[in-house]
Amino acid sequence: MPPPTAIKGRGACSNDRSRFESWQREPDLEAGAEFDPDMPETPRPRTTIWMQQARSIISTNDSPDIPFDASINPYQGCEHGCIYCYARPTHAYIGLSPGLDFETRVHAKANAPELLEKTLSSPRYRPQTIVLGGNTDPYQPAERDLRISRAILEVLERFRHPVSVTTKSGLVLRDADILSRMARDGLARVYVSVTSLRNEIARTLEPRASAPARRLAAIQGLRKAGVPVGVLVAPVIPAITDVEMEAILAQAAEAGASSAAYILLRLPREVAGLFDEWLHAHHPLKAKHVASLLTQMRGGRLYDARFGSRMKGTGVFAELLGQRFALACRKHGLNRERDALRTDLFAVPVAPSPQADLFAD
């Protein structure tokens, strides 16, 4: 097999079939591809956004490793193209590849705001903090025009419902007006994910996400707007980005972050093969070293899905990573206190009544 070839502006190097398909894919270099004149043999697939009518909008989980129970994902698939994204395998459930399909064929939930309003208005609904973007990024490029995430925030603000936003896009600053008003009542916080501070790493690892400097600027802008903001050092990739942990935490704290968390690289299902291709395309001399460190931190395997260890890993290197994180947080004043968002303010808005207007002055 020839070595994997990087595709400019994309994270995945291939578009192999999902685990549910019985047939094999072969590239069609003539149909629906935009060619790079410098690499005529390599197609540059365009992004297609499909408007979808979702049947439900709030996803729930009972994982002991995840600090939230409810989330909303306005998009299925993500144009950011982060090669390590643990959501990639979900594209297999809709008959698409977790590879290039995941970042070029994105489903947008057009009816998300209306569906959310209907859900929150149910007499059976009980409020809890909703994470906006627990699976795919709510501020990926399509959001600039579609504004689905903003419409969701508008619904949550009307219902006085708590929300925690997770993103690696500077576009979140566009909605600082809503988030600021909600934060004044203890109803909003934002976490900005920063994987690397080096542009040369970020543009291949997360090709269409915001540049590292713009993410730090988003932290600063949100802080100035009065929004509690934290930094996610996620994922930590041994021998690639782990050396930057302290620098990321230091710069995020200087920008205004008050809390922090980290997650060790996870490689579930098809992500393992896609990440291996990325390593051999961009860091061929480090590929074996990265795999060796990961297996040492995953109990002898590339991935350990067990609760309690899948987010942080085990063994000497994992323990060292945890100690480094704790020391850096203490040094920069991170995680000193983190107040829970309020749920007691939740209320279903009262629809205006023409009959009530008769008694108005």
What secondary-structure arrangement, pairings included, does this model have?
Layout: E1 33-36, E2 39-45, E3 48-52, E4 59-60, E5 70-72, E6 75-76, H1 100-104, E7 105-109, H2 112-120, E8 130-132, H3 143-146, H4 148-158, E9 163-167, H5 176-184, E10 188-193, H6 199-205, H7 212-224, E11 229-236, H8 245-255, E12 259-264, H9 271-282, H10 287-297, H11 316-331
Parallel strand pairs: 3-7, 5-8, 8-9, 9-10, 10-11, 11-12
Antiparallel strand pairs: 1-2, 4-5, 6-7
Please, could you describe this protein's structure?
With 361 residues, this protein is α/β, with parallel strands linked by helices. It has a domain at 53-73 and 109-335: pyruvate-formate lyase- activating enzyme. It contains 11 helices and 12 strands. The protein has helices at 100-104, 112-120, 143-146, 148-158, 176-184, 199-205, 212-224, 245-255, 271-282, 287-297, 316-331; strands spanning 33-36, 39-45, 48-52, 59-60, 70-72, 75-76, 105-109, 130-132, 163-167, 188-193, 229-236, 259-264. The strands form 3 sheets. Strands 4-5-8-9-10-11-12 form a 7-stranded mixed β-sheet. α8 links the parallel β11 and β12. α2 packs parallel to α4, α7 runs parallel beside α8 and α8 (245-255) runs parallel beside α11 (316-331). The protein is globular. The termini are far apart. Residues 31-42 have low confidence and may be disordered.
